[in-house]
Amino acid sequence: MGVSENIKHFLSTEIPSNVKLIAVSKTKPIELIEEAYQSGHRIYGENKAQELAGKHEALPKDIEWHMIGHMQTNKVKYIAPFVSLIHGVDSFKLLKVINKEGEKSNRKINCLLQFHIATEETKFGLDLNEAIEFIKSEDFQSLKNVNLCGVMGMATYTENEDAIRSEFKELVHIFNELKQSYLTDSDFKEISMGMSGDYKIAIEEGATMVRIGSLLFGARNYNK
Ligand SMILES: *Cc1c(COP(=O)(O)O)cnc(C)c1O
Known about the structure:
The chain is α/β, with parallel strands linked by helices. 41% of the residues lie in helices and 18% in strands.
C-alpha cells in the first residue's frame, strides 16, 4: 500500500472520529508528503523548526502544520507566522518567546504544555507544580498571543503496556487538575499522546490527538 492508502485505511480502522491524527512526516521528503496529501489528510507534524518551515513553503497552504518536537527558543521565529499548534511547550520561558513571536505575526499561537510522564530522563517536559506556579503568575495572565489548548506527553519506550498505560493516566490526571482549577476555558481541551507503538493504549486512556509517523510513512533512516 502507498502512503495515501495507508492513511485512509488507518483513519477508517484505527482512529475514532473524535481523535485527531497528526501524521508525523519528519525526515520524509516533500514528494512523499504530496502523496500523503492525496488521501485528503491535512494535518502533519514535524519535529524540527527549519524543516517544518521549508515544507510549509513547498507544500499546499491548506496543510495544518504541528510542531511536535523539542522547541528551541531561537527557532520559534521560523514557524510563528503559520504554525497551527506547538505541542512541546516545556518551559515558561519558551511560552513567553512564543507569545512575543505571536505578537510580531499578529497571531494567537496555539500551544500544548508538555509534561514529563516517562521514566526516561532524556525526555522533556514540565511537572504539574512547575506549570501551576507559572500559570498563577501575573506574567502569565499578560500573555495575549498564546492560547493554551491542552497537554502533551510521551510515554516510556517499553514493551510494558501497564507502565505505558499508567503514564498516560498520569497525563490525563494532570490535564484534569489544570482544567478544573486553572485553565477552565473551553479552548483547553486537547490531550496529545500516543505514537506508532502505543496509540491504542493512548486512545483507550482518552487521547484527543495521536502523533503517528512510522506506521504511516514507513520506518525512518535514523534511530529515534
Ligand atoms: C517522531 C515522533 C512521533 C511519531 O513517532 P512514530 O513512532 O514514528 O509514530 C510522535 N511524537 C513525537 C514527539 C515524535 O518526535
